[in-house]
C-alpha cells in the first residue's frame, strides 16, 4: 500500500476561469500535502514524523537568548540551555516532483525551534536539503533528542502526507485592481451555486508551491540580492474539513454532489483539528527561497 498516495480534489460545479477569466494568467500549480495522523517512518514523506538522519551527525539546537514560551511561569524566556529542534516536514523528491530541489539533492527536511521568537513571535524554521544516497550508506539516528521546553501549539503530531497536484488562484495576493469586480461576481455566484471565488480558487492549507496561504495581508520577503523571493511551501494550522470544497473525495461520505458531501467520521479524527498545531490563532508559516541564491531562505508568519 502506498502510504503517501495522492488524494482526489473534488470537481467543482464550475471552472474558476469560466466566471473569472481575469485570473487565468495568475493560475499557479501547487501540491497540497493533506497531512493525516499516522506513524510514518524515516523513509516516508511526513509532517511531524521522524527524519532520515545520520547517526554520526549532531542534531540541531536553538540557542536564541530571547525565545520564549507564552505564559510560562515564572518567566517566559527559556534558557540558558539549547532547545532541540522538532521535525516539521520531510519531503522526498519522489513524492513531490514539483518541489524545486538544489542540484544533487532529493530530500527536504524542515525543522523548527518550537518556541516563539521575536520579532515575528513565531517558530524559527531551518531547511536542510539532503542526498538520501549519502545518508542511507551509514547507520541512522534512532532516538533524536526531544526539546526540553516547547510551545505545544508549534509541534505537529506525526502525519503521513498525501501530495496532490492542483491549480489555485490568488486569494490575498489578488491584485488590487481586480478585487472589487471579483468580489462582486463572487457574491452572485455564491448566492446561486453556494461557492464563492475564495472557496473555489484559494487553498488555505499545508502545501508546496502555489500562493502562500496568508490569513493576513501578504508580506513577500526580498532576498539580500534584491529579488522578491518565491513561495516554497506553507505550513498551516488549517486543513480543509467540513464545508470546504478542497476536502478530498477519499475523506467524504454520503450522497449528493461530491464537493458538498460531509467528512467521513472515520477520518475526522485524523484531520481535525489539523495537525494538532495552532500557530497563533490557526495561522501559518510561509517559507520562501530565492531562485538566484540557492542557500537563501526566509519565512513569514501570520495568524487569523
Ligand atoms: Zn528557539
Ligand atoms: Zn537572492
TrEMBL record:
Identification of the protein by name: DUF1963 domain-containing protein
Species in which this protein is naturally found: Wenjunlia tyrosinilytica
Amino acid at each position: 500500500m502506498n502510504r503517501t498516495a495522492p488524494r482526489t480534489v473534488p470537481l467543482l460545479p464550475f471552472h474558476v476561469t469560466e466566471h473569472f477569466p481575469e485570473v487565468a494568467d495568475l493560475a499557479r500549480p501547487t501540491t497540497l500535502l493533506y497531512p493525516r495522523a499516522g506513524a510514518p517512518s524515516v523513509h516516508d514523506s511526513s509532517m511531524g514524523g521522524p527524519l532520515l538522519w545520520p547517526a554520526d551527525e549532531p542534531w540541531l539546537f536553538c540557542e536564541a537568548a530571547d525565545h520564549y514560551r507564552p505564559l510560562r511561569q515564572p518567566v517566559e524566556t527559556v534558557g540558558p540551555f539549547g532547545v532541540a529542534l522538532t521535525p516539521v516536514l520531510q519531503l522526498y523528491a519522489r513524492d513531490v516532483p514539483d518541489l524545486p530541489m538544489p542540484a544533487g539533492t532529493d530530500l527536504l527536511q524542515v525543522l523548527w525551534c518550537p518556541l516563539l521568537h521575536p520579532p515575528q513571535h513565531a517558530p524559527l524554521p531551518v531547511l536542510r536539503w539532503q542526498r538520501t544516497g549519502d545518508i542511507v550508506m551509514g547507520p541512522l539516528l534512532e532516538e533524536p533528542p526531544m526539546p526540553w521546553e516547547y510551545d505545544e501549539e508549534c509541534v505537529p503530531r506525526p502525519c503521513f502526507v498525501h501530495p496532490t497536484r492542483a491549480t489555485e488562484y490568488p486569494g490575498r495576493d489578488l491584485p488590487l485592481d481586480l478585487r472589487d469586480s471579483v468580489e462582486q461576481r463572487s457574491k452572485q455566484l455564491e448566492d446561486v451555486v453556494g461557492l464563492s471565488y475564495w472557496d473555489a480558487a484559494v487553498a488555505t492549507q499545508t502545501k508546496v508551491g502555489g500562493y502562500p496561504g496568508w490569513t493576513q495581508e501578504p508580506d513577500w520577503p526580498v532576498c539580500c540580492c534584491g529579488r522578491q523571493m518565491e513561495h516554497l511551501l506553507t505550513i498551516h494550522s488549517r486543513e480543509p474539513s467540513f464545508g470546504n470544497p478542497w476536502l478530498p473525495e477519499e475523506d467524504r461520505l454520503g450522497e449528493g454532489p461530491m464537493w458538498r458531501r460531509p467528512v467521513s467520521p472515520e477520518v475526522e479524527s485524523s484531520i481535525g483539528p489539523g495537525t494538532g498545531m495552532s500557530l497563533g490563532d490557526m495561522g501559518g508559516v510561509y517559507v520562501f527561497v530565492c531562485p538566484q541564491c540557492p542557500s537563501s531562505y526566509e519565512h513569514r508568519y501570520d495568524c487569523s
